[in-house]
Specification:
mainly beta; 3-stranded antiparallel sheet; 0% helix; 51% strand; globular
Length: 70
């Protein structure tokens, strides 16, 4: 499985739940990441504290059944 986390720098990190290893770092927000959600088709929706919402294709995220956003 995979999990996504956002931080104060605006980065989004994708983690492997089994190994605990970081799989990818996604950039694009200039302020902290306030919300994350996974969608069908390896899509990640993210919102920074000042907006805008971003929709990102995330091949490393895996299938929707393997995902958990926090």
């Amino acid at each position: 499985g995979r999990i996504a986390s956002g931080d104060w720098s605006g980065a989004i990190r994708i983690w492997d739940l089994v190994t605990g290893q970081e799989m990818a770092v996604l950039h694009g927000h200039s302020t902290y990441v306030q919300m994350l959600a996974f969608g069908l088709g390896n899509v990640l929706l993210s919102v920074g504290s000042l907006g805008p919402a971003r929709v990102t294709s995330c091949d490393v995220c895996g299938s929707i059944d393997d995902l958990l956003a926090v």
